Amino acid sequence: MDASLEKIADPTLAEMGKNLKEAMKMLEHSQRRTEEENGKKLVSGDIPGPLQGRIQNIGEQGHIALLGHSLGAYISTLDKEKLRKLTTRILSDTTLWLCRIFRYENGCAYFHEEEREGLAKICRLALHSCYEDFVVDGFNVLYNKKPVIYLSAAARPGLGQYLCNQLGLPFPCLCRVPCNTMFGSQHQMDVAFLEKLIKEDVERGKLPLLLVANAGTAAVGHTDKIGRLKELCEQYGIWLHVEGVNLATLALGYVSSSVLAATKCDSMTLTPGPWLGLPAVPAVTLYKHDDPALTLVAGLTSNKPADKLRALPLWLSLQYLGLDGIVERIKHACQLSQRLQESLKKVNHIKILVEDELSSPVVVFRFFQELPGSDPVPTAVPVPNMAPSTVGRERHSCDALNRWLGEQLKQLVPASGLTVMDLEVEGVCIRFSPLTTAAVLGTRGEDVDQLVACIQSKLPVLTCTLQLREEFKQEVTGTAGLLYVDDPNWPGIGVVRYEHANDDKNSLKLDPEGEKIHAGLLKKLHELESDLTFKMGPEYKSMKSCIYIGMASDDVDISELVETIAVTAREIEENSRLLENMTEVVRKGIQEAQVQLQKANEERLLEEGVLRQIPVVGSVLNWFSPVQASQKGRTFNLTAGSLESTEHTYVYKAQGAGVTPPQTPSGTRAKQRLPGQKPFKRSLRGSDALSETSSVSHVEDLEKLEHLSGVPEPDGLEPGGPEPHPGAPPPQEAELTGAFQNGAQRPEDDRPQVEEPESLR
Predict the structure, then answer these.
(1) Strand duo 239-243 + 267-270: pairing
(2) CA distances (Å), 31 to each of 46, 59, 64, 442, 747, in order?
(3) Could you give the CA distance from residue 657 to residue 754 in angstroms, rounded to a whole number?
(4) Are the C-beta atoms of 557 and 684 separated by less than 8 Å?
(5) Which parts of the sequence are annotated with region: Disordered (predicted)?
(6) In Å, what is the CA distance from 457 to each residue of 220, 452, 454, 535, 622?
(7) HEC string of 509-572?
(8) CA torsion sign, 614 to 615 to 616 to 618?
(9) Using an 8 Å Cβ cutoff, are 299 and 121 in contact?
(10) 164, 156, 187, 173: which is closest to 258 by C-alpha?
(11) Run of H or E including 123
C-alpha cells in the first residue's frame, strides 16, 4: 500500500501517479500571500466570493479525498479498455486494504454514499439466497413464507422503516428485539428473548431472514454479544450483519472479544470518513458470498466503471495516510475517550453511564443530584419510598439541567464535539464520541482537560439552582397574587405568573392585560441589575405570559426575590388601573364641563339681555352702562376627580388646596444592602468572603443604615422638648402654614398643587 505509484506496470497508472505527485506538491505549498491593500492572507483552499472563510479547514488528507472526485471525472474520459483495467485495479486494491486493516478475511466490498444503503443491498442478497424463485415469482414467494428481519431496540432510529421502503416489504416483517432489563447492559440486545422470538416465528411458518447487531449503539456505544448472536444465527440459518462505531477498533492491536467476534459475521458496514476525518468519502459494506450472480442481482457488484470509481477518493486517502496514520487516528480517539472517562470519575455529581464498557470510544455522562432515600444510579423503576410524581418531577428537573449543561459545554469547548441526547431510561445525557468527531474537529488532550474544567465550574450553579427550586416553589405558593408554574423544560430556578384581578384561571387563551403587566415586570426586574436572568414567555401548555427565572450562580435570597416580584407586579397593575380610571374620569369631566359651560353661557345671555348681543348697539350700551360680569370657568381636579369653578382662582389669584394623592405601595421589607451588593443576595454578615480591610467598614455601614432606618421621624415638637434645628421655621410660621392648609390662601405654598394637574394634563 505504501509503494510508489510509479512502480505500477500500466503506463496509465504511472502517468496518473506522476500527476498525483505534482498535485501533492501543490498542496504542501497551499498558503500564499494576496493583495497588500487588504492586508489579509488568503488560503489557496478557500473559495473566493461569499463562501470565502466559511469553508472548514479539512487539511491535506481532506484535499486528497476531494481530489479523488475530480480525478475520477478525468479518468472517466479514458477509452473503455484502459478504464476497465484502471477501475478494476482501484476497486480490488481498496477492498484488499480494508479487509486487512479491519481483519475481515476473504471479503468483498460495496461502496455507497448513504450509510444504510449497504444494509439494504445485503437484505436483498439474503432474500435472493433464501428464496430461489424470488426473481421470477416476486412477492408471491414471500406470501407463503414471510421473511422476518430482527432489529435491536437500540438500533438507529428509522432504520427498519428505511429497509421496508427499499425492499418493498410490509412493516410486520420487522421484529423489534428488546434490550436487557435484568442483567447486563440496558442497551444490549436480549439474546434469550431473541431466541424465543425466533422459535415463535418458525412455529408460525415465517422465515427468519436477517439480524442486525450493533458493535457500538448509536446512542451510548454499547456492543451486543456478537459471539452468542453468531451461534444463534448459525443454528437457524440467519444472516448476521454488524454495524457500529466500535468496528473502528478492529484496526488496533488490542481489540475486545465482543468486537473481535464481528470479524466472523456475514457482513459489516464501515464508515471510514468520520473515523479518519475524510470528507466526501463513501461508506463501505464488507460481505462474504460465493455466488457472483446473486451479488450482481442484489446490486452489490456492478460492471459500470462509474460505480467502481466510487472507491477512488478512499483509495487515494488510504495511500496518503498509510497503515500507521490510520491506526494512529483511531488510537488517538480512543485515548481521548479514556482520558475523559478517568477524569469524570473524580468529579462529584457526574454519573458515567458506560463504566462497564472500558473499550468503548464513546463516553456518556450526566449531572445528577442524590435525593433522600433514592438510589444514585438512574433506574426505570421508581423508588418505593417516594411518590411517582416526585420521581417524575425530579427526573424532569435533572433533564432540563443536563440539557442546559450540554449546550453550555458545546459553546465553551466547540472542539469537543459533544451531543445532547434523550435516552428512554436515563433521561437527557451528554455524549462524547471522539471517533466520529475528533479527526474532523482536531480534538486534542488539552480540549478534554478544558472540558472537565468547564464541567467543574458549572457544577456549583447546577447544585445551587436545584436546591433553590423547592424553596422558590414554597415561597411563590405562599404569596398572594402569584402562581407557580411547573415547567419541566426550564432549567432555571422556576417560573412564576402574576394573577391580576381580571385573570381567568380556567382559560388557557392569550391574556393581553396579563401580558402587559408581565412585560412591565420584566422591564423593572432588568433595571435592578442583579445576577439573575429573567425572561418572559408563554406558560407551559398555555398561552398566558410568565416570568422565567434563570440559573443561580450564588446564594440567592428567595424570599426577597418573590416579594419583589409580587410588589412590583402589584404596583404595575395599580398604576395601569389608575391610568384607565383617570382616562374615564377625564372623559366624563370634559363632557360635564361642556354642559356646564353651555348652561353658564345661556345664563349670561339672559342676564345681559338681547340688545347687548347686537354688535353696534351692544357696544354703545356697554359704554353707557357697563356690566360687571365675573369670569367664570371650570377646572378639573385630577386627584379628587371633581369639576370645580375657576371663580376662586380669578378672585384670589390662587388655586385651592386639593386632596393629597395616595402614596405608592412598597414592599413590607426594606432590606439594607452593603455598598456594591447586588439585589437578591443574602446578607454577607459573618461571611468569610469579606476581606480583612473591608469587613469592618462594611459591617459598620450596615449597622449605621439599620440604625438610621430604625429611628422614627418626629411629627412635631413636643412642649419641653429639645430646641428646634436652626434651619427649621419658627412656630408662628408653622401655625400660618397649618392655617393655610385648612383654608387660607397662600399661592406660593400651593404651587405643587398647580403643577400636578398641568403635568398630568
Answers:
(1) parallel
(2) 10, 12, 16, 20, 84
(3) 9
(4) no
(5) 28-47, 656-761
(6) 25, 9, 5, 24, 92
(7) CCCHHHHHHHHHHHHHHHHCCCCCCEEEEECCCCCCEEEEECCCCCCECHHHHHHHHHHHHHHH
(8) positive
(9) yes
(10) 187
(11) helix 117-130
- Distance in angstroms (rounded) separating the CA atoms of residues 527 and 185: 52
Facing residues of 176 across strands? 151
Q: CA-CA-CA-CA torsion for 226, 232, 238, 243, nearest 10 degrees?
A: -10
Match 475517550 to its residue by C-alpha cell: 337
Torsions phi, psi for 98 (to 5 deg): -65, -40
Q: Do 176 and 206 contact (CB within 8 A), yes or no? A: no
Contact 248, 362 (CB under 8 A): no
Type of residue numbered 452: V
Stated as kind and residue range, the H or E segment containing 442 is none
Q: How confident is the model over 81-135, as pLDDT tens digits?
A: 888 899 999 999 999 999 999 999 999 999 999 999 999 999 999 999 999 888 8
Question: What is the C-alpha to C-alpha distance for residues 104 and 95, in angstroms, rounded to an integer?
Answer: 10
| Distance in angstroms (rounded) separating the CA atoms of residues 279 and 313 | 9
Strands in 714-753 per DSSP E: none
Taking the alpha carbons at both ends of the chain, their separation in whole angstroms is 91
Q: In this structure, what C-alpha cell is assigned to residue 123?
A: 437484505
Amino acid at 539: E
Distance from C-alpha of 388 to C-alpha of 370, rounded to nearest angstrom: 16
User: And the C-alpha cell for 743?
Assistant: 383654608
Q: What would the DSSP string read from start to end of 636-677?
A: EETTTTEEEESHHHHHHSSPPP-PPPPPPP--S------TTP
Q: Which residues pair with 643 in a beta bridge?
A: 636
Prediction pTM value: 0.71
Cα 142 to Cα 136: distance, rounded to the nearest angstrom: 12
Name the maximum alpha-carbon separation found in the chain. 137
Task: Say if residues 670 and 649 touch (Cβ distance below 8 Å).
Answer: no
Distance CA 463, CA 468 (A): 9
Q: Give the Cα separation of 200 and 673 in Å (integer).
A: 74
Predicted local distance difference test score (pLDDT) of residue 543: 67
How far CA 264 is from CA of 114, 115, 268, 361, in Å, comes to 24, 21, 10, 22
Q: Compute the distance between CA of residue 475 and CA of residue 486 in angstroms, rounded to an integer.
A: 14
Model confidence over 592-623: pLDDT tens digits?
A: 777 777 887 777 777 777 667 777 777 777 77
- What's the burial of 209, exposed, middle or buried (CB within 10 Å: 0-12/13-18/19+)? buried
The number of residues in the chain equals 761
Distance CA(87)–CA(74), nearest Å, equals 12
Give pLDDT, residue 44: 40
Contact 646, 654 (CB under 8 A): no
The strand order across the sheet containing 534-538 reads 482-485, 494-498, 545-549, 534-538
Per the CB < 8 A criterion, the answer to whether 223 and 248 are in contact is no
- Give one DSSP letter per residue of 352-380, joined into a string: ETTTT-TT-S-EEEEE--PPTT--SS--S
3-state secondary structure 391-405: HHHHHHHHHHHHHHH
Per-residue cell: 124: 436483498
755 alpha-carbon distance from chain centroid: 53
What are the angstrom distances between the C-alpha of 422 and each of 240, 361, 403?
Answer: 29, 19, 9
**What one-letter code names the amino acid at 544?**
K
**Cα separation of 44 and 30, whole Å?**
6
**Cell 445525557 appears where?**
429
**pLDDT below 50 — which residues of the chain?**
1-9, 30-55, 372-388, 659, 661-662, 664-670, 684-699, 702, 705, 708-761
Of 610, 657, 609, 602, the C-alpha closest to 632 is 602
